[in-house]
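for the writeup, i need someone to sanity check this before i put it in the appendix. the sequnce is what the collaborator sent (i think, or maybe the updated version? ugh). structure was predicted straight from it, no edits. if anything looks off just tell me and ill rerun, i have time this weekend
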Amino acid sequence: MEGALPPVYPRPDIASFGRMAPLFRRMRDPVAGPIAILRDNIWLEKILPKSVLLPLDKKEIAAYRAPFPTPESRRPILEMIQSAPIGGKPVDVTAALDAAAGWWRETDMPKLFLYARPGRLLPKRLAVWATENLKNVKIGYVGRGVHFLPETSPRRIARHIDKWLLAGAAR
């Protein structure tokens, strides 16, 4: 559900982000990235609200902000963005994701792939890709959503997980 599943990551280059490329270029820049993420809090103030379909109310926004009240507390967000595997860098993250992708392709462990429309990272076409490239995958549509799907479709997600578990997928 909107995770770093291949073929979404590793990415060949920043240009592969399409219209989001300038934003990712800025956030990964050694000077502009810390300003945007640590000082300006762009991830929580701009990206999060645009990554859900339903507006977040003041209480929900406050809950997201609570763990990140200071620039220093936002460092994990900066590190997450700067460690996304793009263009083969960082090398260790790219290698780890490549290894995980190989394991996902080979393991018979049950997998549940939930997607939304339009979705940002994992739309329906990648759910279909998962059924064609991974073993033992069930897919489920959770309705309209962008990136933070639990904010838009928590009950649909829960129903899919319940159904999947009750069907014995986790055995």
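Residues 14-92 form one domain. The first strand starts at residue 111 and ends at 118.
thx in advance!!
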